[in-house]
Specification:
single chain; GMP Synthetase, Chain A, domain 3; 2 domains; elongated
Length: 175
Amino acid sequence: MAPKPDSPHKITRRMRGFEAAGQLLSSRIRSAGESRGFAVTRLLTAWDEIAGDVARMTKPVKVGYGREGLGGTLTLLVQTAHAPMVQMQIPRLIERVNAAYGYAAISRIMLTQTAATGFAEGQTPFDAPKRAPDPVLVAAAHDLAAPVQNDGLRAALELLGQNILTRRKSQKGPT
């Protein structure tokens, strides 16, 4: 039974749903985009719709504005094999990007060619030999997780305990 409108225990409802979660991320996305020159983050978030079939071959990296004012340069990351195809699509792509902005924000598109793996994925993995965990830490983690009945959960908690105890030990430094 709902309380009466004059009651001091009035229930108030927010009709905005997940607005708070969106607001938490919007400022971070905007600041990350602005650091790369993206005044409108829609270019990043809706790149698939804006670029169409060219989107699977490209990735927007940066928007730079010259001293002349309007008419910035959009830098796209493209795989070397797809660069000629994207180069032919540049006039159409400029039209679509400017339609997303709502004015002639981009006058030039510059392509940055890279390997098939891209910048971040192409880094060499660090193959350091793995050391065996400290038996004292393994025993401590096992003792902490021992009361748990579920085997899978207990194993996960033991691994988590080992990671935390190892991290604490490395922060204290060698003794």
